[in-house]
Specification:
This protein has a 5-stranded antiparallel sheet with strand order 1-2-3-5-4, with helices on one face. It starts with a helix and ends in a 5-residue tail after the last helix. The chain has 107 residues and is of the alpha+beta class. The chain is built from 3 helices and 5 strands; from the N terminus they run αβββαββα. 25% of the residues are buried. The protein is 36% helix and 24% strand. It has one domain: Aspartate Aminotransferase, domain 1.
């Protein structure tokens, strides 16, 4: 399942022109010195948002915080499997997350 999700992640990120996928063993996207999306070893996607947006998306998508390697990543929401069927929406969420990290103080 992980290889299929990696392929999907690559396809989705490739649709976004402002950033590219990075990482070999832990695929992710980053900008301004911050990761803003990643695929964990359990083949789950996480996307980073502001606290206000997270609260909205927790309810809207009926999801929770994203976990990677057993750690809760409080800046990220877990992308539900059902959401992966809407590639346009997933790309919009990636763009929204990119815009968010670009407002943060560069690292």
């Amino acid at each position: 399942m992980w290889k299929e999700r990696l392929k999907l992640y690559d396809e989705l990120v490739a649709q976004c022109t402002r950033f590219e996928r990075k990482g070999k063993t832990m695929p992710y996207t980053s900008a301004n010195g911050y990761m803003f999306s990643l695929l964990n070893k359990d083949a789950q996607f996480g996307i980073r948002f502001s606290k206000e947006v997270q609260e909205n998306y927790f309810q809207k998508f009926e999801t929770t915080f994203y976990k990677s390697y057993g750690a809760t990543m409080k800046g990220y929401i877990l992308i539900p499997d059902a959401l992966l069927e809407d590639q346009k929406l997933f790309c919009e969420l990636l763009d929204e997350s990119y815009d968010y990290v670009m407002t943060l103080e560069p690292k």
